[in-house]
Amino acid sequence: MRILIYWEQGSWGGVDNHLLELLSTWPDAEDEFVLIYNRGNQGFERIRPELEMLHNVRSIEVSSCSHNELVRRMKGIPGYSILRYAIQFLKPITFMFMVWRLTRLFSKLGKFDLCLADNGAYPAAWGCLSALLAAKRAGIRSRVLLIHHTATRPVPFMGWFEHIVDYMVGSTASAVVCVSYATRQSLLDLRMLNDNMLRLRVIHNGVSVPLIVNSASERAFDLRKATDTADEFLVGIVGRVQAYKGHEDVIFAMSRLKENQLCQLKLVVIGAGKDEELERLQRLADRFAIADRVCFLGYVPGNPTDLIAQLDLLVVATRSFEGFGLTLAEAMHVGTPVLATRVGGIPEFVDESTGMLINPGSPEEISVALNNFLVNSDMWHQRAGRAQERIKGMGNRMVNEYHRLFI
Fold it and tell me: Which end of the chain has the least Cβ crowding within 10 Å, N or C?
């Protein structure tokens, strides 16, 4: 089977981890993958070394002119805030132009059995939606759209066009795969898509790549050394630093702890973000006089599971929506206890028997949970053990479900 993957994004995150997991554990070594990615795709650059080791994966870079890519390139240009809204009216033109460009490219690359458009949210990467239509025009028999995050409402004044695109997706896609039932429900609630139009499938993410947790002397990056942590519990947040991820709520929660509790914890924030957001969080830590308890490491290259395995507790404090929460699955796989908000797809695989769930946007609940972790760390590790058993095999189930779907 020859499979075409079109992947368009700007930054890095769970989408690239998921794609690497899918390709590296694919059950049929005879299948061939051609991965087309957009120039400036940070996620591809992050997993490039691992992809280059896969003999059946060929990667091709393209310069995308989809709506989201044009917006990304305009950042920093004087008048960006006005241009960003003005370019909305060009969306139909850029969309159809991408369909034309990708149709030519796909046809030039030869015959494919299936096209997978690997999208983040919906509609999000408009190039991925263009790829679906282009695949049909290029004669690719099966066309699958993969959605990792939530759907968003149509943009004002352009709803008519987005409704047309929804209809085109519904009539073109052989199947739409969502990583959680929460993501699926957002499509039904917010877009002109329904079960009668297309096959909506849910395939939860999985982590099954054999993980070798290195000793302190073998690790490429030692978190305790980098954060100057001795006997304290190392609590971590892993992923892009964005307001909706709730970093602020964790800092507020740390500030609520008593001195004898605070001295037992150190918070490490692993992930890149905009300078203004990082500076704002640092000012919060300074204002609450807990700067010595909070470390901002930025983006740390390497295997994220090796970093998560070094944590005593992983916190996912997302305020609004998580399509799945891949860092949680990685933590469960290596036996790291988890504290997470009850949003999106997280409750579909984390419950009170395998972790601790709290309401979003509640520093008070985070603070209570951190204190509970200090007092009952043995119980948290028992939950982590049950979580490890639950997550075991989810990766194999995931890749096998995709394999059955693609056949």
Answer: C
